[in-house]
What does this fold into?
Amino acid sequence: MTARVALVTGGTGGIGTAICRKLAAMGHKVATNYRNEEKARAWQAQMRAEGVEVVLARGDVSSPEDAEAMVREVERQLGPVEILVNNAGITRDTTFHRMTALQWQEVINTNLNSCFNVTRPVIEGMRERKWGRIVQISSINGQKGQYGQANYAASKAGMHGFTISLAQENAKFGITVNTVSPGYTATDMVMAVPEPVREKIVAQIPVGRLGLPEEIAYAVAFFIPDEAAWITGANLSVNGGQYMGW
It folds into this structure.
């Protein structure tokens, strides 16, 4: 496989870390963004200790200016971005009748607007080179909804709308655009949920357990090789059978 330059937003989180590891293991040159430098450098050192090299670039993906500067820094260090994984995401959960405008806007800006902010600076280069891979990390809750997550579900559903439109526009340029929709995965965020609540979640999963970050990373990796060039506009559900929509 040709070694490519891959940018994974939110790469220092649980799923993001697994994606960075997987892409590096495939031979790609990997970068991610950060906001807290101290935490990011500690994460980078841990990755290096595992033999995984990931370039860091400062950037808040909710800001168009920050996102473009981040992309340019990755290009400066590694070269043009050929693989983009829009993985950064946050939650601000509450029922809609209690939700503030800020709670809505923060989630939409970080989860959905970031897809525009980060993809816009890389898409023209991909079109010129006639090759690209773009993967959005959405969510099961973008497919089925979730109580107390109107903002999150809207942002995650919007990510796939972005995917299928971008896929149509760029198919003839050798660029594929796809979505991975994870179910409940054993990240720090999910493991912080009280155990009785987690047990109720697991009881709804036919496979009988939470997913592993590495299983989400495998799904992302599926879309990357040249052999996946005919797969575009797809939404791959990785949720242990919890939601089986068409």
